[in-house]
Each structure stands twice: as structure tokens, then as C-alpha cells.
Amino acid sequence: TALNIQYPTSGSILSYGETDTIKWIDIGGIDKINIEYTINNEYTWETLASEIDNLGFYEFSVPGPPSEFCKIRIRSLDGVIINTSDLFTIVDSPVNWLYANTMSGTIPAGESENITLSISSENLEVGNYEAYLRIETNLGQVLSLPVCLEVISNIQAVDKYKLFQNYPNPFNPSGTITSRSLFTRIRFDLKESAKVKLQIFNLRGQLIKILLEEEMDAGEQEAWWDGKNKNGKVVCSGIYFYSLEIDNKIFDTKKCLLIK
Predict the structure, then answer these.
(1) At 181, is the secondary structure helix, strand, or coil?
(2) Other C-beta atoms within 10 Å of 97: how many?
(3) Count of Cβ atoms closer than 10 Å to residue 160 Cβ
(4) How far is 167 from 187, CA to CA, in rounded Å?
(5) pTM of the full predicted structure?
(6) Other residues' Cβ atoms within 10 Å of the Cβ of residue 67
(7) Cβ neighbours of residue 244 under 8 Å, at least 6 residues apart?
(8) In the 8-state DSSP scheme, what is residue 229?
(9) pLDDT tens digits, residue range 212-256?
């Protein structure tokens, strides 16, 4: 179908204020389009872009406020062709203060399971933060739980560790030449020796690969990711998270973008 939206899709998580890209199928014949968005499941629509060229993609700054009832729709200027995305979620950016220690599991019928959440206000400004914990079963049932954090003081402890933004970001692992230009570099500082675990997750919270899991000395450390999963296959384009675990506790999580 003309203008069929490929991204965002059901379950996509976009970060408020971050730059992202809407993607759709363009079969030709439509020169200009309008793009609109809703954060209340189509109760109201707001204009995102008017009379832009139909290129099959549109880069934009993700609007707010955060919501789990967001959709994008693309229309031809005459309104004859209209396509609407599935529901997706917009969260505060970046969401590096919340992490679920259990990302998947099995719960027998009639029983319950406790999920431990790690919440850290380190390096956050005073203010209110909101995110959504999405729980999905293999039967297609979906539950989104809002998690709110109020930071009332910005007194900071002396940092023992620091996780940096990866570079390059975005990065493109495609190619036939073996070169570090096809990798992205992840740096972190250790002020003292520690047991380190560096992991890559996708937007659904699924583990993609463990980059590091070892005792490391104090100092500046680094790891390289080639865009491949634990089976050695290059993953699809999209947003991924890398998480630094220090002495069996989540220290920090950051986002990276892979394109190919």
C-alpha cells in the first residue's frame, strides 16, 4: 500500500526530544504528503509536517508529552491516501534511570512473580520523570505500567565510574572490509577495580550480546561492538541500549543507533 508506515511499529519506543526517523513505503505517484501524530489513540491529531516531499522517510524531533497511546499517520495532500501506524510509546529522554533486573521469564498459571526494578537518580536534574514498563506475554497480552520519579535534590556523590556515549553514533556495520570503522566504540572509566559486565539490548529488552564479563582494573576501558548478536549475525537497523553492570549492579544504560 502506498505510504505504508514501516517505522514506528507496534511496540516501538521513541524518546521525547530525541531525533528519530519515520519510514514508509513509497510506490511513486504521490509527490507531497502531510504527517500528523496523536498521543491519545486518535482522539486528537497534531501536525508534524505539512506538504513535504514524499521521500519514504522523515527525520524529526520526537514531540511530547510522554504517552503509550501514540500513532503516526501519513496523508496525501488531497486526503485520498491515508495510512496510520500501530500504537507506539513516547518516553522521557533518555530513560537511563530505570531498569528491570528481570527481562523475561515464565509464570505458571495461578502463580505470581515479583519483578525488581532498579531506579537511580544519579546525574538527573531536579524535576519529574516518567517512563513506561511494558510487559508482553507470548499470547499477545500487553500491559504498560507507568513509573514516575521525582528528584527533589541534585546533591551528587563522587562518581566511582562513568559510562560514555558510544562513537560513532549512529554507526553502520555493513561492508566487506575488516575495519574498526564498521564498529562502534563504547568507553567507560573505572576509579577502582571491579567486576564488569557490558551488554547490548534491543528495544524490547531482549539480550542481544554480552560484550564484556570480567574483572577489570581501574582506569579508562573500552569495548567495540560490530552490530552482531551472540550468534554472529548482524542485527537489523534500529535503536539499541548498552548497559554497564558493576559488581552485579546496573550502573548506567545508554542508547545507540545502528543503521545499514
Answers:
(1) helix
(2) 20
(3) 13
(4) 9
(5) 0.44
(6) 20
(7) 161, 163, 188, 196, 197, 198, 250, 251, 252, 253
(8) -
(9) 999 998 888 899 998 899 988 888 888 899 998 888 888 888 888
Q: Are 186 and 225 in contact (CB under 8 A)?
A: yes
The span from the CA of 28 to the CA of 55, in Å, is: 9
Q: How far apart are CA 198 and CA 216, in angstroms?
A: 12
Q: Is residue 1 within 8 Å of residue 25, measured between CB atoms? A: yes
Q: 239 Cβ partners below 8 Å, 6+ apart? A: 13, 203, 255, 256, 257, 258
**Which of 45-49, 159-163, 238-242 is predicted least confidently?**
159-163
The alpha-helical segments, DSSP class H, found in 83-135 are none
Torsion angles phi and psi, residue 180, rounded to 5: -70, -10
Predicted pLDDT of residue 86: 93
Q: How far apart are CA 120 and CA 202, in angstroms?
A: 21
pLDDT in tens, 58-75: 999 998 778 889 999 999
Query: Can you tell me whether residue 121 is helix, strand or coil?
Result: coil
Could you give the 3-state DSSP secondary structure of residue 76? strand
According to DSSP, residue 231 is labeled: T
